[in-house]
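Item description
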Amino acid sequence: MSSSRFTGRTVLVTGAGGGLGRAIALAFAAEGAKVAVSGRRTAALDETVALIEAEGGTARAVTADVAVAEDMHRAVRETVAAFGGLDVAVNNAGVFRGGQSAGDFPLDDWRTLLDINVTGVLHSLQAEIAQMRAQGGGAIVNIAANLGAHVRRPGLSGYQVSKAAVSALTRSAALDHIGEGIRINAVSPGAAESTMSLLPGETEAEREVRMKEQSPLGRISSAREVAAAVLYLASDEAGSVVGTDLVIDGGASA
């Protein structure tokens, strides 16, 4: 293990069946945390657990849907039952819908984005805060996006609204709960090592060529780079960082 910053601590990561959520869970486990990985697809969660255990880490799969409040309260209860508490939570679960102007945006897609990306984060926060309040504190990191609060693109109104709301909710909740010893921050990735950054029908190689032109950095952010930002905000090193929204996008929103 490269570090022991989180040895003895329990971490819950939502949307951990793949992509950035899996990378974040693996990074916490590599630094000594016991990790509860949550999501809707049990088989994918089991794969994440197996990857963590193969590296000598400790993990447990907790199947839950962030859009259902009771699911998240149950996920926290199962995490506490398995590992004895909840020190860190990362609210990463989210979906992408796009390709339509605001005037033509399908209402079903709009509701899905708000139910999962916004209300799902609130469900998660409320369950996590209740446990952390009882323990005397903790750290929460919400995954927003550079799209929304930091930069806008045409055809993505619903997604951008949902992620801007996550940024605003993070800052508001941070002020509400820092007095209880609960630090809440956000990370806003841009195009990163995830299927969500691929255009329809685009290959990873084609994305690489596109990002050389579109990104000031000339490439996407790696999943490891995004995970490193999350771990920093969750760590004691960020003890005075409250209500920040850390953008990781290679300069796209600079």
About this structure: The first helix runs from residue 19 to 30. The CA atoms of residues 217 and 250 lie 5 Å apart. The two ends are 34 Å apart (CA to CA).
